[in-house]
């Protein structure tokens, strides 16, 4: 399986990063070794001094597809969860400055904690899902999919032009504004609407 991540998919986050608001989706990938399941802790790696949280809704691909038409894209995912796209912001800034790819800042092992999946059917409207991240009981990021620059269906159509999607692939759909640094001892809790789907500690 593979993990596809969408960058700059909420305008306010693009602004806080002083990035342009994109006119087409920006995507990158993480390897399977990025996943952290079952609320296991996240260990701060020693290669970064500025590890940032990015809370994101994650969709799970449910059948193989290539060149998927946007109007059928909803048939290609069946479950949704919440995850963190951990980003070594200091390394990413270096890469951006040099015009290099972001992989070492984004795709390192354990950079993608993932929560418990729920059925898409249990969500009333996938274009109006609230989600948020609390750190030590305080809300630091919150988003709603109505503010996505590119909807789940648009993302699936776009990515599948370039990369075949397969059952079990995950798409991290982008983070809203409010990204920031995590520290040892922080307790992160991620909610889809009011349901806690992921909680873990920084070590
Ligand atoms: Mg992200």
Briefly say what this structure is.
This protein has helices at 11-16, 89-98, 103-106, 152-162, and strands at residues 3-7, 26-30, 35-36, 51-53, 55-61, 77-84, 87-88, 112-113, 118-119, 130-135, 138-144, 170-172, 180-181, 187-192, 195-201. By secondary structure, the chain is an alpha+beta fold. It has a single domain, classed as Fumarylacetoacetate hydrolase, domain 2 (Alpha-Beta Complex), CATH 3.90.850.
Q: Indicate the overall shape.
A: globular
CATH-assigned fold name: Fumarylacetoacetate hydrolase, domain 2
Whole-number average pLDDT?
A: 97
Q: List the ligand species.
A: magnesium ion
Query: What is the name of the CATH superfamily?
Result: Fumarylacetoacetase-like, C-terminal domain
CATH top level is Alpha Beta
Q: Main beta sheet: strand number and arrangement?
A: 6 strands, mixed
Beta-strand level of the residues, as a percent range?
25-35%
Order of the strands making up the biggest sheet: 2-1-12-5-6-9
**How many domains is the backbone divided into?**
1
Instruction: Tell me the total number of β-strands.
Output: 15
Low-pLDDT sequence parts: none
Please report the number of helical segments: 4
- SSE-based structural type: alpha+beta
**Distance separating the two termini:** 27 Å
List keywords for this structure.
203 residues, alpha+beta, Fumarylacetoacetate hydrolase, domain 2, six-stranded mixed beta sheet, four-stranded antiparallel beta sheet, 4 helices, binds magnesium ion
């Amino acid at each position: 399986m593979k993990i596809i991540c969408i960058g700059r998919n909420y305008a306010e986050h693009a602004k806080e990063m002083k990035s342009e608001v994109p006119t087409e989706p920006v995507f990158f990938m993480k390897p399977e070794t990025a996943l952290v399941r079952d609320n296991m802790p996240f260990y701060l790696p020693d290669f970064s001094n500025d590890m940032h949280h990015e809370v994101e809704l994650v969709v799970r691909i449910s059948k193989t597809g290539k060149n998927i038409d946007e109007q059928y894209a909803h048939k290609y995912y069946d479950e949704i969860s919440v995850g963190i796209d951990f980003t070594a912001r200091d390394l990413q800034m270096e890469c951006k400055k040099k015009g290099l790819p972001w992989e070492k800042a984004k795709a390192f092992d354990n950079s993608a904690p993932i929560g418990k999946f729920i059925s898409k059917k249990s969500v009333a409207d996938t274009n109006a899902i609230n989600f948020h991240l609390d750190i030590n009981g305080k809300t630091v990021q919150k988003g709603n999919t109505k503010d996505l620059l590119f909807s789940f269906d648009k993302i699936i159509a776009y990515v599948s032009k370039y990369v075949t999607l397969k059952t079990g692939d995950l798409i991290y759909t982008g983070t809203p504004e409010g990204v920031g640094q995590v520290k040892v001892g922080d307790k992160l809790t991620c909610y889809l609407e009011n349901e806690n789907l992921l909680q873990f500690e920084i070590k």
